[in-house]
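Long-time lurker. I teach an intro course on protein structure, and each term I like to show students one example going from raw sequence to a predicted 3D structure in token notation. This year I'd like something fresh instead of my usual example. Would anyone be willing to generate the tokens for the chain below so I can use it in lecture? Attribution to the forum is fine with me.
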Amino acid sequence: MTRALLSDKQYDEKIQARKVTEDVPRLVIVGEKQTYVFDLPEPLKKILQSSYRSRLNLNISKLSLDASGAATAQYMVRLDKQASLQEQEAASADGLRKTSPLALYALEGHLVGKRYKGAPELDGESLNDVQTSGTLRVQEAPGVIESIGRITLVPVTVTVDLVGFSLVFLGAVIVTVPIMIYCGPSLRGC
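-- Reply from a regular --
Happy to contribute to a lecture. Here you go:
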């Protein structure tokens, strides 16, 4: 019970669209309930706005939120194995690397941004679709009030955890002792 109380809230957000803004380097992930807007680091911006972007697979993982709505995530962008030799050379020039001779070109990094309820105002910027569909696992840290509430409840939950364990242990003793008394020391009569 205590572990459940202290763990961060986790939920899955169904992704409806991933978009890259052209004017201001941002990645916008439109979820079913919320939208996440991340500033793009320069290498990722260049890659997502490249001529070979239709050959890219962008994966966002480990999305974490703090109480203020600030978001951090990890990304990995991979070049499709069907990419032409020219696209592979361009991707390599843009910073994608092969980790082994048989591996795909890839780039990993971290994103920093913000969560919004619904769709945020994007100041009329044009958007290019990068990829759609999928589910994103979100881990949300508790707010200040929730944290104080959790801390004040810890002694209660620890007590309940210990009492629950004690009751289970006591129940096993209550059931075992009468059987031992009835059957005697040899237990052959049972």
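Some talking points for your students: The first strand starts at residue 9 and ends at 21. Residues 2-6 have pLDDT under 50 and may be disordered.
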